[in-house]
Specification:
Blueprint: H1 2-22, H2 27-37, H3 42-66, H4 72-93, H5 98-105, H6 107-122, H7 138-154, H8 159-169, H9 174-197, H10 204-207, H11 209-228, H12 233-257
Helix pairs in contact: 1-3, 1-11, 2-3, 2-12, 3-7, 3-9, 3-11, 4-7, 4-9, 5-12, 6-8, 6-12, 7-8, 8-9
Length: 258
């Protein structure tokens, strides 16, 4: 028990650092931790992951807003469509057995990550990115809704899909996109997390981990937000892609061989 109480905040700190560096939430790695290390169900794992993401996003967003990295028109779109999607995705998670969830989970981040990585390599010579304006487009609304569904279902957060689409397809400034997504993830993740955790019988010996998750997430998010502010856009995109691909490969490998 003592070992887990030490490992949990350290792992949450690591995930929060990655989350605020790449704007993806880090939820996929959290879900794997809860599923395979702590032996929780997919619903419980998704709920704890979303709560941790919300915490780290709050801390990271303070720094991002302070430095004017957040695009408010984009934030509003992701907030509305993401919340609707995450609620539907959370409801979907209740009808999919944990065994099936484990089998398909890894292919989601792997697909997103490979698309992102390929686009990064193709655009490695790009000299400047576009700044998001007031007219974002209906396509972004759809992507936000889709990301919300997958977030609610998997507990991953909306960052992987929305961040990849906005930077790879729309070629928009990674730091602004990631910062805006992180802010939106506060609310979308809270909605999804509460729906997960409020609808199941949650063991008391698992509830004790939540404060430790929050402490680790706060520390990691603070460090990640500071570091991401000084890294070049190309490097942020590459980092995001590699993290997502690694997560997908890890999830599939654990499912097949452990």
């Amino acid at each position: 028990m003592l070992a887990i109480l030490i490992i949990v905040p350290l792992f949450a700190m690591f995930i929060a650092f990655i989350s605020n560096m790449s704007g993806i939430g880090g939820g996929a790695l959290l879900v794997l931790f809860f599923l395979y290390y702590m032996g929780l169900s997919s619903v419980s794992a998704g709920g704890l992951s979303l709560i941790t993401i919300a915490t780290s996003s709050m801390v990271g967003s303070y720094s991002n807003i302070k430095h004017d990295f957040v695009n408010m028109p984009l934030f509003k779109i992701l907030l509305i469509t993401g919340v609707i999607g995450v609620l539907l995705g959370s409801l979907l998670s209740f009808v999919v057995p944990t065994a099936i969830f484990k089998g398909v989970f890894g292919f989601i981040p792997l697909s997103i990550g490979m698309f992102s990585l390929i686009s990064v390599l193709k655009q490695r010579n790009i000299k400047s990115y576009l700044k998001p304006g007031k007219n974002i487009g209906k396509d972004v609304s759809f992507i936000g809704f889709l990301a919300g569904i997958i977030s609610g279902f998997t507990g991953m957060g909306i960052g992987g899909i929305t961040g990849t689409y906005m930077t790879a397809v729309r070629k928009m400034t990674p730091k602004i996109i990631f910062s805006t997504i992180i802010l939106a993830m506060i609310i979308t993740s809270v909605f999804g997390g509460l729906l997960h955790l409020g609808s199941i019988s949650f063991p008391e010996n698992t509830l004790v981990y939540i404060p430790f998750l929050i402490i680790g997430a706060v520390i990691g998010a603070f460090i990640g937000a500071r570091v991401s502010g000084v890294i070049k856009s190309k490097n942020l995109r590459l980092f995001q892609s590699l993290v997502i691909v690694f997560t997908g490969v890890l999830a599939i490998s654990i499912y097949l061989f452990i």
